[in-house]
Amino acid sequence: VSIRRETIDGNSIQGFVLAASDTLVVLQYVYDFHLDGLMVLRREDISDIYQSETDEFQQQLLQQEGLLQQVPFDLQIDASSWNTVLPQLSASHQYLIVESELVDEPDFLIGKMRDLTETDVTFDTFSGAARWYDEASSMPLSDITSCQVGTNYINVYRRHLEMAAGRGLH
User: Fold this and answer.
1) What is the dihedral of CA 23, 26, 31, 37, to 10 degrees?
2) Using 50, 70 and 90 to split pLDDT, how confident is the model at 170?
3) pLDDT, averaged across the chain
4) 9 beta partners
5) Phi and psi dihedrals of 64, rounded to 5?
6) CA atoms of 130 and 83, how far apart (whole Å)
7) pLDDT, tens only, 36-58
8) By CB neighbour count within 10 A (0-12 exposed, 13-18 middle, 19+ buried), where does 36 fall?
9) pLDDT value of residue 165
10) Which residues have a Cβ under 8 Å from the Cβ of 22 and sit 6 or more positions away?
11) Distance of CA 155 to the CA centre of its chain
């Protein structure tokens, strides 16, 4: 399907819906014919979900490329709230990205989830230069518009951080 979030982005997001609730939608994100991790979107931000001819054709291409079989259609995830999704994703993926895209100063946290309360999530985060910050960063759950795990972006950083840790650097 294609998903539009007009108040956030002019571009559509393509993916396969794996779970949904009144609050969140969990997708197998597809980008340039690559399965690019899981993406969780806040439902209130979604302005349209549809399947175009292009989506149908690209699904056939993914089938022909052998990628459709890799989509975790049997994923069991409770998508009822950020309080249920974030611990599940953190348990299965070491690094997460959470974004707050609709506040005056949009925020982006990448790292390891440290703590989760009824109202906030706290992360150990690192910079774009892959340096861990000394202080943890928090974000109100009510501000989170999306979460990603297992993306190519995260996986490249993960591999770098693991190699640096193996060399005693961080």
Assistant:
1) 130
2) low
3) 94
4) 5
5) -65, -35
6) 27
7) 999 999 999 999 999 999 999 99
8) buried
9) 73
10) 43, 80
11) 12
Per-residue confidence (pLDDT) for residue 167, from 0 to 100: 66
CA-to-CA dists, residue 97 to 51, 77, 93, 165, angstroms: 27, 18, 11, 20
Between the CA of residue 133 and those of 15, 115, 170, what are the distances in Å?
33, 16, 10
Alpha carbon distances (Å) from 78 to 18, 24, 101, 110: 11, 10, 23, 22
The residue-averaged pLDDT of 14-19 equals 97
Mean pLDDT of 144-167: 90
Whether the CB-CB separation of 141 and 35 falls below 8 Å is answered with no
Q: Which two tokens stand for residue 53?
A: 């001819």
Q: How many CB atoms lie within 10 A of CB 39?
A: 23
* Burial readout 109-134 (b: 16 or more C-beta within 10 A, e: otherwise): bbbbbeebeeeebbbbbbeeeeeeee
Taking a C-beta distance cutoff of 8 angstroms, is the pair 49, 107 a contact? no
Tell the residue number behind the tokens 């309080």, with chain if given: 83
Supply the pTM of this predicted model: 0.93
Task: Output the pLDDT for position 103.
Answer: 83
Amino acid at 3: I
Structure tokens belonging to residue 93:
């993926």
